[in-house]
Amino acid sequence: MKMRRVVVLLAVLCVCDGVRFGQLCRGNPTNRRRTSDSQGQGHYGAGREGRLHKGLDIRCEDGSDVLAPFDVTLHGGLLVYNNPSKAAIDSGINLRGQGLCFKLFYVRPDRTSGSVRKGERIGTMLPMQTVYPGITSHVHVQMCDKSDPTPYF
């Protein structure tokens, strides 16, 4: 009897297909992005002094409420720079929801564990203008695997 090899290909669908971020910052209901300003550009892949920007910048005024973009679980706070000269904006939070793992930079979280429903406040936008005068203040959205978050906006 002749044996045949059978190759089976499986298509893996991301549970993330169709996921869209809801409003991240009070005052920016459509998640307008930071484009170009005196400090550079806010799109994924923009140049950053010899490296590439691994996130997407969503406009947010200093001191504004930062909101859960969908139902999320909070997975701890994070240090953005760990640099004393940038201490005013050196905070963020790790989140998971809708099959995504992502981080928000420049946010003082209200808490760092538990669950938050879409649209509820998760923290406050830190005073970016004190560290980078003239920049368009923003929340930096970075996927845990550093892939491009743009398709989710």
Key words describing this protein structure:
mainly beta; six-stranded antiparallel beta sheet; 13 strands; 153 residues
Structure notes:
With 153 residues, the protein is mostly beta strands. Helix content is 0%, strand content 34%. It has no helices and 13 strands. Strands 5-13-9-8-7-11 form a six-stranded antiparallel β-sheet, with no helix packed on it. Strands 6-12-10 form a three-stranded antiparallel β-sheet, with no helix packed on it. A hairpin with a 2-residue loop joins strand 8 (92-97) and strand 9 (100-105). The model is unreliable at 6-15 (pLDDT under 50).
H/E element order: EEEEEEEEEEEEE
Instruction: Output the radius of gyration.
Output: 18 Å
Structural class: mainly beta
Largest sheet: 6 strands, antiparallel
* Counted beta strands: 13
Strand order of the largest sheet: 5-13-9-8-7-11
The unreliable regions are 6-15
Assess the beta-strand content as a share of residues.
25-35%
Overall 3D form:
globular
Q: First CA to last CA: what distance?
A: 56 Å
Q: Give the helix level as a range of percent.
A: under 10%
* Count of runs of 4 or more consecutive helical residues: 0
What is the residue-mean pLDDT, rounded to a whole number? 91
Sequence-ordered SSE layout with sheet pairings:
Elements: E1 36-37, E2 40-41, E3 47-48, E4 51-52, E5 56-59, E6 65-67, E7 72-78, E8 92-97, E9 100-105, E10 107-109, E11 113-116, E12 121-125, E13 138-143
In short:
The protein is mainly β and 153 residues long. The chain has strands at residues 36-37, 40-41, 47-48, 51-52, 56-59, 65-67, 72-78, 92-97, 100-105, 107-109, 113-116, 121-125, 138-143. The chain has a 6-stranded antiparallel β-sheet, with no helix packed on it. A 3-stranded antiparallel β-sheet has the order 6-12-10, with no helix packed on it. A two-stranded antiparallel ribbon has the order 1-2.
